[in-house]
Amino acid sequence: MSVARITEISASSPTSFEDALQAGIARAVKTLKNVEGAWVQEQKVVVRSGAISEYRVNLKVTFILED
């Protein structure tokens, strides 16, 4: 039996939601051990001067706790 923990992180990118997601996961695995999955809780954009300037994602990342 294993026990998992879920943590919430936010990531952003000037390019796309996909890029923000990739950046968020890449950063999470640097700090957290045993990352098993993640889901996108929220997506939003920042608009400046009438155009999208930033894509943001809020992620819930699941990782398995070690004994």
CATH class: Alpha Beta
Quaternary state, please?
A: single chain
Distance between the termini: 11 Å
What is the CATH H-level superfamily?
Answer: Flavin-binding protein dodecin
Instruction: Let me know the average pLDDT.
Output: 96
> What is the domain total for the residues?
1
Give the helix tally.
1
Radius of gyration: 14 Å
Stretches where pLDDT is under 50 for at least 5 consecutive residues are: none
Anisotropy-based shape: elongated
Strand percent estimate: over 45%
Put the structure in a nutshell.
This protein has one helix and three strands; from the N terminus they run βαββ. The protein has one helix spanning 17-31; strands at residues 4-13, 35-48, 51-64.
Structure commentary:
The protein has 67 residues and is of the alpha+beta class. The protein has one domain: Dodecin subunit-like (2-Layer Sandwich), CATH 3.30.1660.10. 22% of the residues lie in helices and 57% in strands. Strands 1-3-2 form a three-stranded antiparallel sheet, with helices on one face. The chain is elongated, with a radius of gyration of 14 Å.
